[in-house]
Amino acid sequence: MTGLLAFSTPQARRLWQDFQRRLGWANRNLDAADRADISAEAATHIRDAMAELTEGDEFTRLQAAIAGYGDLPAAPPTWRRPAAILLHYGSILALGVAGIFVLIFLHMAVMEIFNAQGVGLWHFASGDWALSYEAQDGAEEVLGAWFIPAILTICAIASAGLYALWRFAVAPGGAVSAWMKD
Amino acid sequence: MADMTDKAGVLERWISQARKGYFEMLLLARLQAGRAYGYQIVASLKQVPGFENLAEGTVYPVLTRMRNDGLVTAEWVAEDSGAPRKYYTTTQFGAEVLAEMKAIWAAMSAALDAQEVTS
């Protein structure tokens, strides 16, 4: 029944097609029959609204009729859902790997208490760096008593970052989860 | 605490919430007066205070829900002009629900008046 509305200008046809896309998107949670029904009703509504408008050309009247119908959200770009799925599962992987590193760092902070001579951040004469549980030959430990506060600070910052990532990309109420359903 | 100068904002928020509350009742009342199609219903609603700027498209999902709830029936009718229109009619169940809604509305109004007398 939506075919009852025919427009003579390409500009009006494009606007009408955009409106139909937006309407379909706004009613995406309805079943197909209700969606088709609302789409057909919208067409009769727009036709009635345009008939009441006496001024302006076809495009202007269609624009006014659509404005009266209400602001409909645009459908998201087609790439958003697959991108969200990739981001979701990529974040789970990143959280797992980063989480293991945070646990290792925490473990090192604890082990620093029992083995202050071995655990530390070591700097070699060659310029290389190593985070190690054991003293390194030819290397100097650079953090000393600051090792534990430094590691705990890194863990706190990393945990906050990982929590933010979880809220955004993994949590059921997060933005990425919502995009995955669109 | 609300800013005393923001009366318009407070009222706007309250009206918006209230409008959602009695939207279905208004639709049922309009349809009890006689069957109507979407554009007619919207035109009637726009005469009601608070609904002047109604987004017309919001009526249809509500009518669909009311039809699914058995409050109204809908039927496509071919007009003389050749363009079909979907007409809505209140069901017996819808009329009973509307009567209950009106009774609640009247009780609420009476309670509000009583508050004003006692305060």
The ordered string of helix (H) and strand (E) elements of chain B is HEHHEEH
Spell out the helices and strands of chain A N to C: HHHHEEEHH
Average per-residue pLDDT of chain B, rounded, comes to 89
Distance between the termini of chain B: 22 Å
Cα distance, first to last residue of chain A? 27 Å
Strand order of the largest sheet of chain A: 2-1-3
Please give the share of residues in helix of chain A: 55-70%
Number of helices of chain A: 6
Number of strands of chain A: 3
- Looking at the structure, the CATH topology of chain B is Arc Repressor Mutant, subunit A
Shape of chain B: globular
Describe this structure in words.
Chain A is mainly alpha-helical and about 180 residues long. Chain A has 2 domains: about 1-70, no CATH class; about 80-180, no CATH class. Helices cover about 65% and strands about 5% of the residues of chain A. Chain A contains 6 helices and 3 strands. Chain A has helices at about 10-25, 30-50, 60-70, 80-115, 145-170, 175-180, and strands at about 120-125, 130, 140. A 3-stranded antiparallel sheet of chain A has the order 2-1-3, with no helix packed on it. In chain A, helix 4 (about 80-115) packs antiparallel against helix 6. The mean pLDDT of chain A is about 90. Chain B has about 120 residues and is an alpha+beta fold. Chain B is about 60% helix and about 15% strand. Chain B has helices at about 5-30, 40-45, 60-70, 90-119, and strands at about 35, 70-80, 85-90. In chain B, strands 1-3-2 form a 3-stranded antiparallel sheet. Chain B is globular, with a radius of gyration of 17 Å. Classes of the chains: A mainly alpha (about 180), B alpha+beta (about 120). At the A-B interface, helix 2 of A face helix 2, helix 3 and strand 3 of B.
